[in-house]
Amino acid sequence: MKRISEDFLVVSCDGCGDAYVGTLRGIQQNGSIVVSRGLETKEIRPAMFIFNNPRERFLTCPGRNIHPFFQILESIYILGGRGDVAWISKYLQNMEKYSDGEDQFHAPYGKRMRRVGDGRSFQYDNRGFHDQFEHCYRYLDKDPDTRHAVMTFWDPVLDFYKVKTIDRPCNVGFHFLIRDGKLDLTIFCRSNDIHFGLFNANVVQFSVMLESMAMLLGVPVGKQIHMINSLHYYTDNSLTEEVLSKNKEETNFNMYKYVRPHPFGLRNEAGIDPWNLFNECFEEFFRDEEAIWKGHAGGILSNNFSYLRDALYVARAFWHIKHKNLRYAFDDLCEIKANDIFITTAEFFARELSPDAVLDYSIKLRQKFDLKNKHEIVAYILTH
């Protein structure tokens, strides 16, 4: 991690694992106490993070019980344009508390991005819904040098101060830009909790968005830049002390020292328009995921979008974990092609193992990896 400025926080790093602990320690030592909505936070502002390799999206950090199943499925929930409470709450029931008691969230990123004018999201627009993600794709596909590939998430009507909701967008605007032949994404954020916002949810969600757009355009992934006006943590949460006590050095376990991210790919043997195929892949994914939760999806899972193909095995493994079928869950995890997805989901899976089962799965995990440093990876999965 490289801090560029002393006047305000500007961090340049590869992925989230290079910056999380150091930034957390910096807020603890240099942040200011700010009370908002009756809750005390420690805040530093403004802050900017430049992730030079945003495909290193998953945080592996002692002291953090990350929920990668939720991270992966939520990124697809957003990119697929959904906003329904029931679907995402299958993977994290705690999401229901942000629903205002409705069946649709007030400000879901996916719906505000891909279905502007549909239902509760931007309901004043009666001209049919609009897809901001597609607009950005069309702009960039037509003119790679354009500066018009912008998406906005804060709505002056729906998020007006008189509207009663606990679900207003934290990340208010996105800007895609191709420079030096690579696609960058800049995120403008009004408020970010370092634990559960930036390094848990947003880095994953938005890097998937960035890499998907780059895949459609046929260009390499560039930088992911987060410009944050309030970066903070809540002082009544013990997580800060837990993480810092278990990470005395900046060199905490980072799986990207051992494995590389698996690049997104869109298999297109029939020569279909990439945009149409991309959307067909999401429709197929949601049909197959529904079948999994009905107990009807056995056998081999497939999708022409490589990330969605792996995510189907992630979804079915989670379903098996929920139903205490750990052997079948592990078999599904072993079908995942992306090593980083396998490692982060396997660590979550290992939390469910009894002490007697750890040795058996230790052997299986060593057989899974053909890597020089597999012992360090297996130790993290089983002992974290």
Could you walk me through the main structural features you see in this protein, from its secondary elements to its overall organization?
The protein has 384 residues and is α/β, with parallel strands linked by helices. It has 2 domains: 2-252, Thymidylate Synthase, Chain A (2-Layer Sandwich), CATH 3.30.572; 280-383. The chain is built from 13 helices and 11 strands. The strands form 2 sheets. Strands 1-2-5-10-8-7-6 form a 7-stranded mixed sheet. Strands 3-4-11-9 form a 4-stranded mixed sheet. β3 (32-36) and β4 form a beta hairpin. α8 runs parallel beside α9 and α9 (306-322) runs antiparallel to α10. The chain is globular, with a radius of gyration of 21 Å. 42% of the residues are buried. The mean pLDDT is 92.
CATH architecture label of the largest domain: 2-Layer Sandwich
- DSSP summary: helix tally: 13
CATH class of the largest domain: Alpha Beta
Determine the CATH topology of the largest domain: Thymidylate Synthase, Chain A
Shape: globular
Strand order of the largest sheet: 1-2-5-10-8-7-6
The number of domains: 2
| Annotated CATH homologous superfamily of the largest domain | Thymidylate synthase/dCMP hydroxymethylase domain
Unreliable segments of 5+ consecutive residues: none
Helical fraction equals 40-55%
